[in-house]
Amino acid sequence: MGTGRRGRQAEAARNDVRLLEAAHEVFTTQGFDAPVSAIAKAAGVGMGSLYRRYRTKEELLQRLCVVAMERVVAAAEEALACDDPWEGLTRYVRACVGNRAGALAPVAGTIEVTDEMWRTSRRATELADRVVARAHEAGVLRGDMTTLDVSLLMEQFSRPAPGPPSPYHQRARERLLTVALDGLRAPGATPLPGEPPTAEWYEGRWEPGP
Fold first, then answer.
1. What span, in angstroms and rounded, lies between the C-alpha atoms of 5 and 151?
2. In a 10 Å sphere around its CB, with 0-12 CB exposed, 13-18 middle and 19+ buried, how is residue 123 labelled?
3. Which end of the chain is less enclosed by CB atoms within 10 A, N or C?
4. Can you tell me the distance from the alpha carbon of 159 to that of 12, in angstroms, rounded to the nearest whole number?
5. Is the pLDDT assigned to residue 162 strictly greater than 90?
6. Cβ(102)–Cβ(124) below 8 Å
7. Do 102 and 155 contact (CB within 8 A), yes or no?
């Protein structure tokens, strides 16, 4: 019985991974109004399996947000383990863009933010601050660039390209990301306009709208 239970648990875990991957793809390419039936179909599971794990679309989106931020945490930890501050920063940015960490930003303000989401976000921000501070201290990151600037840059590059997936989209994104990363290097040729974004504004996007 123990072996059978472990087998069912393993299968449930695999189903959950497929559901989350499918949900991320469906929501970020078809929009957040996409039906959950499209997610179940893409994941190759029944609607019953989906609803046993996530009772509502909001619960599914909340879990997706946590997973995205957990990946940001992992990317930041790997960046801090890198001896070279600039290499660590660029690896962090590339990993987050590769995971499309900011692709769920449009859902801000439309779902309730759970305690787990806030905790994971705080941890991700803390580590990102350390990645950026280390690059500043080494003199390799332009002085007017903040952690939030870096996060917003990654958010822009996390958006899906229009049309069906294509290797041309990936190559174009890599080229432009390389240009953007060069723009982060100190000292920076052109001063950044305006005041830097604030944490209050950034987090305030997740407050429910009127």
1. 42
2. middle
3. C
4. 30
5. no
6. no
7. yes
pLDDT band at 31 (very low <50, low <70, confident <90, very high): confident
Q: How many degrees, rounded to 5, is the angle at CA 98 between CA 93 and CA 100?
A: 95
Q: Could you tell me which of 146, 134, 131 has the C-alpha nearest to residue 79? A: 131
Q: What angle do CA 31, 66, 43 make, to 5 degrees?
A: 50
Q: Which residue has the tokens 């997706």?
A: 64
Quickly tell me which residue has 């290797």 as its tokens.
167
Render pLDDT for 58-81 as a digit per residue (tens, 0 to 9).
999 999 999 999 999 999 999 999
Q: Average per-residue pLDDT in the chain?
A: 89
What is the 8-class DSSP label of residue 106? G
